[in-house]
Amino acid sequence: MTAKLTTQQAASTAALLTITTETPFNKRRDCWFCGEPNQYVFTCINDSETSAKKDISQLSLPSCKECYQIAQKSVTKAEHERCHYSIWTIKAAVKQYLLQHYHKDLAIGINWTKTELAESEFEQGNFAGFQKSAWFMFELAKARVSYASWPLIVDGITILDEYQEQSFNFDDVVYPNIEQAMHHYANTFSLSLEYFRSVLALLGNDNFAKAVRFCRLLVAANADERQQALRQLRQEVTAHKLRTSNNT
Ligand SMILES: [Zn+2]
């Protein structure tokens, strides 16, 4: 009896939901998450707060098989752990998966330029195939990770992307947040994540490239040397701030 009532309640609630979303004509073959050709439709009840009102809507989004599977997993996990989820937490989970999945391919673009790779003299022998596919894979990975999903509009109101402000754009790759970008660079260059975090905290997020270079300079240093370098950097940053504030 209870189960039947619940089903009926669910059905009547579903009838009140707005079914969206319009896919722009030029994106009609794209996966909403990553831009690859779509074969599936991912459907979820989206429960997200906008500045204007609380929106509950049913979203149906075209999706590729891979993103569809990750998105479904993310919903199952959130329901199992009784966590709040929305289309934006699901999208963040898909992007995080893609970033990890393509870690090695994205590292190619960090370590090489296209020309350097073409001139790397691996055309013969065991690495010829790798040389040929590496840049293609890097560009594919970059495009999927950085793909800008089209806005979701329900009854003329755009559902605000709760995670948009957190995304971090560096060297043409859009990371879900700066933490993911730090993990990626720390892994790629075998840097200590904690050390990188300390350096970036000193230099500020706008100096991400400088923080990477600083840590790479010290990659072979021991713990004492690294701490000493961090103290010197702190002094330099403090002195620079003092100079700037005296000049204004
Ligand atoms: Zn996809």
List keywords for this structure.
3-stranded mixed beta sheet; alpha+beta; globular; 248 residues; 7 strands; binds zinc ion; two-stranded antiparallel ribbon
Please characterize this protein's 3D structure.
The protein is an alpha+beta fold. It has helices at about 1-15, 65-80, 85-100, 105-110, 115-120, 130-145, 180-190, 195-205, 210-215, 225-245; strands at about 20, 40-50, 55-65, 155, 155-160, 170, 175. The strands form three sheets. Strands 1-3-2 form a three-stranded mixed β-sheet. Strands 4-5 form a two-stranded antiparallel sheet. Strand 2 and strand 3 form a beta hairpin. The longest helix is centred in the C-terminal third of the chain and has 25 residues, at about 225-245. The chain starts with a helix and ends with a helix. Zinc ion binds near residues 31, 33, 34 and 67.
Q: How would you concisely characterize the structure shown here?
A:
The protein has helices at residues 2-16, 65-80, 87-101, 103-111, 114-118, 128-146, 178-188, 193-203, 208-217, 223-247; strands at 18-19, 40-49, 54-63, 153-154, 157-158, 168-170, 173-175. Helix content is 55%, strand content 13%. It has a domain at 16-188.
